[in-house]
Amino acid sequence: MPTVAAIIPCRYGATRFPGKPLADINGKPMMWHVFQRACETELIGKAYIATDDDRIARQCEILDLPVIRTRSSHPTGTDRIAEAIRVTDEDIIVNVQGDEPMIDPKAIDAVVKALIESPDEVLVTNGCHVITHSGDAIDTNNVKVVCDFESNALAYSRLPIPYPKGDAVRHLRQLGLYAFRREALKLFSSLKPGPLERAESVEMLRFVEHGHKVKMVEVEPGDDIPVDTPSDLERVRAKMSDRLN
Length: 245
Prior knowledge:
This protein has helices at 30-39, 54-63, 77-84, 105-116, 134-138, 182-190, 195-200, 205-209, 230-244; strands spanning 4-10, 24-25, 28-29, 46-51, 67-69, 92-96, 124-130, 144-147, 153-157, 172-181, 215-218.
């Protein structure tokens, strides 16, 4: 079996929500909850926080979370992880977004398992699930993906693709959950962001625009809520408090 590590990229200066990784949820910072979800998986052997920020690194030390320090000038979380793998030796690296405190550990395992069982030429897998509420399809905070018949990503957009002009459609929401072979991360960091990635701010478009396949892995829709705004954080706090009661 290949060895697997999760790396959770965390930066302090998010435009819409500065300091997001340190936002309190039931007495612990958000990044702590993401780390716990990664540790609840069956296939991940180690998990790390990757950051350039002293405040985040200090909290990692206080909470005994393994931290990898990176430089600050990274356009995406995957670029940060591509630097962070210098201190790891695992065969597969999972990017678990630092703003997904309710992510399902089974979804993480599904994305890893799909990569393990894929041919060597498949370098990256990406989680997705069916959108069940129409409002989520038009929400630009949710990235939508369309695939070919072999579940490879054809395009990502913050708009609701495909547009239902001629037939009923189902929309797939891309999850911020990626499993990479080590060589895929080296390739990613060597590629320049293209016009689609820059326009949509969706990092997996870097592979697609340069002609490389991203295998989508459909998982069951859960009650996970990605935290993009302070109002999302309040929803997460309420849901996680209900789980404890």
